[in-house]
């Protein structure tokens, strides 16, 4: 089944075209990125497997134009991979927030779109863009089934004591204020892949998954089910991130609003766009830039990286306690898969758990590798994530079941 996977942001969309034979066997036909949607000049970067990369600047007024640009690229005689759009058998969408309405992936219909729109207040930067993507596909491919896969769905197995905040209960009842968690597609994928890689039975295991990148979160996965995760009502809570502050004393918000005269919207921008690595270092939101600066002796870059390392170490300890043990710790995401120094510094503080670290294996970056020694009481691995594959799997299975 040929499936187009779309990940729509407010001004961009990432895509992959996969030919799914089954859950494990597939071919990546093409992937790409459409940027600067809504600006005067946009850009599409398209890469078909085995062909030259294609880059084109053009006006991209909205997501419908953007998706049409994707279709044109897929059909291009020189750079494309399809003879006709009818070759696309299904489209899978990443949707950031499903609140309590969605505990699993589902086929798109009018009711589903309506419910995603209701969740938009909880993810105002993401859900409206996701809906635009769905509607744009409907305009270009009206007969093709679409499936939505939610970042929050994997975390819906958390118990109430893990997801509730200690604020008046009426705000949960009125507004749905609770912990939801994000990166669920990645946490689900790497916990299952990691268990298999480590020779564990996922259904009888205790796994801590660390998805570390520009956005970062950690999840505790017991017997294949998420029991806790660091992100909360929104992706702002938890670890220090590229531009997001992570955990802070909530009173800081009202303090700064009073002292600086910030509106709620301005305060949100400070916490979401000006904090994290960027806020501490004053240099960059990218960990690679901070590594370079830290190596050159920049104290604030060192501080930002040490803070993240400390928080990861502390959170692993907390989740090991919550599950009464841990069998496997997984590092994934752009930082988790590639930053060997961070992995080493975290694991050197986990000897109390019985972690025996493999320094030689740890230098490997960007591929699946066991970075604990064979006699380590707790296994540690770097596992490459593939959220697009997870979305394609769910899309294939849901569409096939619907056809039956």
- Characterize the biggest β-sheet: 8 strands, mixed
- Secondary structure: number of strands: 14
> Percent range for helical residues?
25-40%
The parts where pLDDT drops under 50 for at least 5 residues are: none
> What is the spatial order of strands in the main beta sheet?
5-4-3-2-1-6-8-7
Number of helices: 15
Compute the CA-based radius of gyration. 21 Å
Question: What share of residues are in beta strands?
Answer: 15-25%
Order of helices and strands: EEEEEHEEHHEHHHEEEHHHHHEHHHEEH
- Net shape: globular
Query: N- to C-terminal separation?
Result: 15 Å
Rounded average pLDDT: 95
SS content category:
alpha/beta
How is the topology of this model organized?
Elements (H helix, E strand, L loop, with lengths): L1 E7 L4 E8 L5 E10 L6 E7 L4 E6 L4 H13 L14 E6 L10 E2 L2 H9 L8 H14 L5 E5 L9 H4 L5 H7 L8 H15 L7 E6 L5 E6 L2 E5 L21 H10 L3 H10 L2 H6 L5 H9 L3 H24 L5 E5 H6 L1 H8 L11 H4 L6 E2 L8 E4 L4 H17 L1
Parallel strand pairs: 1-6, 6-8, 9-12, 12-14
Antiparallel strand pairs: 1-2, 2-3, 3-4, 4-5, 7-8, 9-10, 10-11, 13-14
Helix pairs in contact: 1-3, 10-11, 11-13
């Amino acid at each position: 089944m040929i499936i187009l996977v779309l990940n729509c942001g407010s001004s961009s969309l990432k895509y992959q075209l996969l030919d799914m034979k089954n859950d494990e066997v597939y071919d990546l036909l093409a992937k790409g990125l459409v940027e600067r949607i809504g600006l005067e000049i946009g850009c599409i970067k398209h890469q078909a497997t085995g062909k030259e990369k294609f880059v084109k600047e053009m006006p991209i007024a909205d997501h419908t134009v953007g998706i049409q640009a994707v279709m044109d690229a897929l059909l291009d005689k020189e750079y494309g991979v399809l003879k006709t759009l009818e070759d696309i058998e299904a489209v899978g969408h990443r949707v950031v927030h499903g609140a309590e309405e969605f505990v699993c992936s589902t086929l798109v219909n009018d009711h589903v779109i309506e419910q995603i729109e209701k969740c938009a207040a909880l993810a105002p930067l993401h859900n409206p863009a996701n809906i635009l993507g769905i509607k744009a596909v409907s305009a270009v491919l009206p007969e093709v089934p679409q499936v939505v896969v939610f970042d929050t769905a994997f975390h819906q197995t958390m118990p109430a004591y893990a997801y509730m905040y200690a604020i008046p209960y009426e705000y949960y009842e009125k507004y749905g204020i609770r912990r939801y968690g994000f990166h669920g597609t990645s946490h689900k994928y790497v916990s299952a892949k990691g268990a298999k890689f480590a020779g564990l039975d996922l259904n009888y295991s205790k796994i801590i998954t660390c998805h570390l990148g520009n956005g970062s979160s950690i999840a505790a996965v017991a017997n294949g089910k998420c029991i806790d995760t660091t992100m909360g009502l929104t992706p702002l809570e938890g670890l220090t991130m590229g531009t997001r502050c992570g955990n802070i004393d909530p009173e800081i918000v009202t303090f700064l609003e009073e002292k600086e005269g910030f509106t709620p919207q301005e305060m949100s921008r400070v916490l979401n766009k000006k904090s994290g690595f960027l806020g501490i270092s004053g240099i960059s939101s990218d960990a690679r830039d901070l590594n370079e600066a830290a190596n050159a002796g920049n104290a604030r870059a060192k501080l930002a990286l040490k803070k993240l390392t400390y928080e990861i170490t502390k959170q692993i300890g907390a989740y090991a306690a919550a599950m009464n043990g841990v069998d496997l710790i997984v590092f994934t995401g752009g930082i988790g898969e590639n930053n060997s120094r961070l992995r080493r510094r975290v694991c050197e503080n986990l000897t109390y758990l019985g972690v025996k670290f493999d320094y030689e294996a740890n230098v490997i970056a960007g591929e699946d590798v066991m970075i604990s020694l064979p006699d380590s009481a707790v296994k540690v691995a770097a596992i490459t994530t593939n959220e697009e594959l997870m979305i394609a799997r769910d899309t294939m299975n849901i569409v096939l079941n619907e056809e039956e």
